[in-house]
């Protein structure tokens, strides 16, 4: 069965070139489109309305999510945290006979999501068998650098008073990498950019911050077993990123303990 995404909201019904669909999550559809000039790329995130929800409730929830996301992004750009800038939004889903829902237009980040970078790296490590000491050291050094970069960005986010709520390697991008380079060991230079603030909230509680880190740690463990042992370098990058970071790291120990107990009980 081929999937037909819901119709685009105006003005995207007649932009040229037409937006191209990149991903469709349970909640949102992501398109690549352009902004002001045809050669300025932009990312369009649409939250389609959900026909099975009561229309008034649906509208309120959709509006709340998209506004929350936009507010966090605007605040973070202002604070100098590496996230896409907000270009435009329609939080009401104003469009007539609209089932396109509400949308958010953002700066386009040219690069790859960290999940893909690690998938390529793991494939490279697997097929290159036993790497020699020097080569292995070079590979591991790259990974450590990326991990520290991730920690630094998450620390900047927390310093700004925002909790991401869904830190996974799909919600972190590495700017400047091209999808073309398929073989060999992937590059890991470039700025880490945080995306997807659909579940973000404003908080400075160390419990919330620690849980944010714990979610990321678990995500690494389950999606990138080979990279997991480098997670300590995320924490190393996080450590120096704001004044209270060491308190959050201490709290992370408690969160881990609770997580372990919970999984023992089942
Ligand atoms: N600003 C951007 N620039 C380039 N690509 C982007 C941008 N934002 C998102 N993407 C791409 O689209 C994918 C999905 O985006 P995002 O994570 O925001 O949506 P989602 O996971 O479906 O949303 P949600 O979890 O809020 O329902 C990302 O993994 C990334 O590959
Ligand atoms: Mg996402």
From TrEMBL:
It catalyses: L-threonyl-[protein] + ATP = O-phospho-L-threonyl-[protein] + ADP + H(+); L-seryl-[protein] + ATP = O-phospho-L-seryl-[protein] + ADP + H(+). GO terms for molecular function: ATP binding; hydrolase activity; protein serine/threonine kinase activity. Its EC number is 2.7.11.1. The keyword Repressor does not apply. GO terms for cellular component: chromosome, telomeric region; cytosol; EKC/KEOPS complex; nucleus. Residues 16-266 form the Protein kinase domain. Component of the EKC/KEOPS complex composed of at least BUD32, CGI121, GON7, KAE1 and PCC1; the whole complex dimerizes. NCBIfam families: arch_bud32 (TIGR03724). PANTHER family: EKC_KEOPS COMPLEX SUBUNIT TP53RK, NON-SPECIFIC SERINE/THREONINE PROTEIN KINASE. Component of the EKC/KEOPS complex that is required for the formation of a threonylcarbamoyl group on adenosine at position 37 (t(6)A37) in tRNAs that read codons beginning with adenine. The complex is probably involved in the transfer of the threonylcarbamoyl moiety of threonylcarbamoyl-AMP (TC-AMP) to the N6 group of A37. BUD32 has ATPase activity in the context of the EKC/KEOPS complex and likely plays a supporting role to the catalytic subunit KAE1. The EKC/KEOPS complex also promotes both telomere uncapping and telomere elongation. This is EKC/KEOPS complex subunit BUD32.
């Amino acid at each position: 069965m081929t999937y037909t995404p819901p119709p685009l909201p105006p003005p995207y019904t007649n932009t040229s070139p037409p937006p191209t669909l990149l991903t469709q999550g349970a909640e949102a559809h992501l398109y690549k489109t352009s902004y002001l000039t045809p050669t300025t790329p932009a990312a369009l995130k649409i939250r389609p309305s959900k026909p099975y929800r009561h229309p008034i409730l649906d509208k309120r929830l959709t509006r709340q999510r998209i506004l929350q996301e936009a507010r966090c992004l605007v605040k973070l750009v202002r604070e100098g945290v590496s996230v896409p800038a907000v270009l435009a939004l329609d939080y009401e889903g104003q469009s007539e006979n609209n089932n396109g829902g509400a949308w958010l237009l953002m700066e386009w980040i040219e690069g790859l999501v960290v999940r893909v970078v690690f998938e390529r790296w793991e494939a490279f490590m697997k097929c290159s068998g036993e790497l020699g000491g020097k080569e292995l050291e070079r590979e591991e050094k790259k990974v450590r650098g990326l991990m520290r970069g991730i920690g630094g960005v998450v620390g900047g986010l927390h310093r700004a008073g925002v909790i991401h709520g869904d830190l996974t390697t799909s919600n972190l991008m590495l700017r400047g990498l091209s999808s073309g380079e398929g073989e060999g060991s992937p590059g890991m230079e470039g700025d880490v950019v945080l995306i997807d603030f659909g579940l973000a909230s404003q908080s400075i509680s160390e419990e919330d911050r620690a849980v944010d880190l714990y979610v990321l740690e678990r995500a690494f463990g389950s999606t990138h077993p080979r990279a997991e042992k480098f997670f300590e370098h995320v924490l190393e990058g996080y450590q120096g990123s704001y004044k209270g970071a060491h308190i959050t790291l201490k709290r992370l120990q408690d969160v881990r303990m609770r997580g372990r107990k919970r999984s023992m009980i089942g």
